[in-house]
Every structure is written in structure tokens, then in C-alpha cells.
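haha ok so turns out i had the wrong file open the whole time. this is the CORRECT one, sorry everyone. sequence first:
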Amino acid sequence: MSFPLLTATALTPAIGAVATAAVPAARRTVAKWLALLFSLATVGFAAAVLLRFDTGSGADRYQLTESRSWIEDFGVRYELGVDGIGVAMIALTAVLIPFLIGAGWHDADPPSLPASGQEGPREGEAPATRRWRPTQGFFALILMVEAMVILSFAATDIFLFYIFFEAMLIPMYFLIGGFGDRAGEQDTEEGQARQRSYAAVKFLLYNLVGGLVMLAAVIGVYVATADQLPEGTFSLQAILEARSAGELDFGTATERWLFLGFFVAFAIKAPLWPLHTWLPNAMGESTAPVAVLITAVVDKVGTFAMLRFCLGLFPEASDWATPVVIVLALVSIIYGALLALGQRDIKRLIAYASISHFGFIVLGIFAMTSQGQGGATLYMVNHGVATAALMLVAGFLIARRGSRLISDYGGVQKTAPVLAGTFLIGGLATLSLPGLGPFVSEFLVLVGTFSRYKAAGIVACAGIVLAALYVLILYQRTMTGPLKPGLEKLPDLRVRELTVVAPLIALLIFLGVYPQPLTDIVNPAVEHTLSDVDQSDPEPELPAVEAAP
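then structure:
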């Protein structure tokens, strides 16, 4: 098509970020509405991508493609294109950002102004002593992350993908370190600042190390293609075509090393055990919208890239690594759930629950079945929506009380029944209750895993039981029972907060009852991915039946 729709989709939030940052400091409200306007415009472009994408059987694998020469001497091109998985992830990103902006409407306000759900500065703390950064910067950084994530989902040039895969770390670093949660465990602003800085630096170092390993593998891909093709290339489509035509073969040892270079970077981003330890710190010290941005949007780039690059570029190595990856995924499922059970911090509990859920996603990807990979893709979408609903309501609750500790709450449903109800629905979605979106995803992942790896499927089922425990115990301790002192006048959800949460809950119900529109988009891409790794679904095991005489 002549109009660069994918570029426009990514460029809209980037322009919005620049425009929002340029608003004078005295015009905070203008900056907020401007950021919201650009995020809604991005939703419009993402809807156009969804409508223009062809799910028919004869449709091309990558659609809405754009290709322009960029760094010609090194074979780098500006190449974009989306398959069904990319379309689903772009839609998820575009839909969530307006809700995050609405939820964080007051999160970057100066301390002298009331924060979300608060009457003013915390007791005993003078407003003038609290440091703050310009409100415009908070919303500009969110929009910049959105632009880079969309380009990561659309890039079909490996080097172009790497650039945005790494570049998104910069605005995320400032969002974690500069606009952290004001309800930290430390009593002083200096102590909270140290915690935020530690979380931001840990996030950056982990992901930078993974990126450097990946950079070596990206260069290795170019060198390997230059040896066998007329010229080296970073184009994913060119590499796939050359391999299918028998013109390119990395060789067993080379392919396995290159696979590891990519996989380590994606496993850190995912995050997969044992490379996960940055996530609880980052989510715990971030505001609720930034915590959602991390786990529901940014981290999905890691699991998405496993499907597009690890399985697409290195099929033999993916098959070779599958047993180890499945073990790591199972450890993530059980380990994350057990640690969630032991948490006393609401945000860290949700963070460890996300580690467990990412284990399910990786398990589905490497089960190498259509049900598993289809379920994993649906899980990426549904987990993003469910985590957004749960974390944002938790953020509203924490802002009212000024504490993240579970022990500081109790009986909230007596004074804030709507808040408690939405918190319950978000929690039930997290434990994959039938009728809500994540149930369909988790069911497909388990079906796909059982059909090939029965023992792994049995172990993964323990994660379902543990999820029910940590979600229901969290709800029981915070929302039921006697009303804790100090919560007598806790306000219920306001109109702005309910406007943020209600559509997410409606989307969870819709995807739980009628997931077919999403599966129709995703399934053709899953079939292509299975074809890349030369896998097909196992034959069903049916009991032998004797023919009638």
C-alpha cells in the first residue's frame, strides 16, 4: 500500500511525546490532555492496521510492508511488516496506553498538589521538601515508550528491531527512577529515591547486558549471510526466503550460538527464571501505570521476539533448546507463584504473579503445537489486560492509604464496594477464572503442552492452584474482615478511575466469552511459525476400536 500505515502508527505517539514535552511547565493540564489525544489517535491508526490486515488463507505472511534503504553499506533497511501476532500486540499496546495515561493523571503532579486519591502530602511531610520532575516529562516518556514498542512489533529488519529493542530502555529508566511510587517502605524522600534508583539501574543493567549479547548475535547473522548470499542482510524475510530455497544454512554449531545470543536477551526482557530478578524491584518502585507499562507492554516484546526471531531464524536450535526452555518455564511458573504467596507488598505480589504467567507464555511457545503457540499469543494479550485492571485498581487503593503493605488493609469492601468489586474481577482474571479472557489462553497452553509433553503439563497445572491461593488470600486480607483503623473514610472509585477500569473489565469478559476475532488473526501466523520449525501437531491418541463384523 502507498500510505505507510505502520510508520504512522508509531510516529503518532513519538510526535505526541515531543509536543507534550514542549508544553510550558505551568500548563500541566494541557500536557495531560495533549498526551491523551495523541494516544487516542494512535488507537485510531492501530484500528486501521487491524481492519486492513487480511486473515484469508491466501494472504501474505507479512502485510502492510514498508521497505526503504537506510544504511546501505551494511545492508540495514527500514523494513516494517506485521503478521497476526504483531497486529495483536500493536493493538494491545495502543489500547492500553490511554488507560495508563488516565490512571496516572495525577501521578507526576507536584507534591503540593493532591495525588490520585490523596488529600495532599503525606502526614508529617512538608510539600517543599519533596522533589518532583515536570509533569510533562512523565506523559512524554510514556508516549515515547509506546512508539518504540510499536516499532519493535513491526520491524522485520533484525538490526532495526535491535535499535528499538534497546532504545526503549532509556525512557523506561527515567520513568522508574524519576517518577517512582510515593508509597514506598522508606519514611524519607531520600530513602525512596535510593530505592527507585536501585530499581531503575538494575532494570537497565540487566537489559543492557542482554542487549549486548544479542548485538553480537545480530552481527553474527550478518556475517553468516554474507558468506553464503551475494551480500549480507539483516532482513528477516530475505533470510527466511533464502533458507526455504536451500541457499542459506547457518550450520548446527553456529545456529545454536546465535540462538542463545537472541534467547538470552529475550528471556531477560520476558522475564524468565533465573533472569527475572529485576522485575519485582522495577514494578514495586514504579507508579501503577508504569508498572503496567513494564509487564503488560514492554516485557511482551521479549516473548513476541521468541516467536518471530528465535523460532523463525533458528529452527534447529529452537528444537535443540526446547527441553531446557520448558524446564525454565516450569520453574518460572511454580517459583513465581510460590513467591507471590509469601509477599507482604501488593505490587511485588502482582510482579511475582506476572513471572509465573510469563512462564506459561514461554511454555506455550516452546510446546511447538498450534494450540500452545496460539494460547501463548492470546495469553500475551489477555495477561496485559488482566494485569492492567488488577494493578491499576491496586494503585488507586495504595494512593488512598499511602502504603503498599497488605497488612495495612482490611474490610475495604465495607467502605469502597466498587473498588473491591473491580479488584476482585481483576484478581479472578489473573487466576484464569472461566468466562474471563486469561482462561481461554491458559487452557490452550495446557492443551498444547499435554499433547506433546504430558509431564510438563501436569507440573504446570500446579501453577493454577497456586494462583488461586495468592489471589484469593490477597483479596481476603485486604477487602474482607474487620475494617482496619484509618480506613473508615476511604473513598470509593471516582468517575475518572472507574472510566479507566470499566472498559478493561468489559474487554476481559468479551475475550473470555468470544475470543474468535482474536484467534482468527493469530492462528495463520502460528501456522507459519510451526512451519518454520518444521513441526506439526501430534496425532491424537485414540483407543483402538474393533470393527463390527
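Residues 114 and 120 are 4 Å apart (CA to CA).
again sry for the mixup
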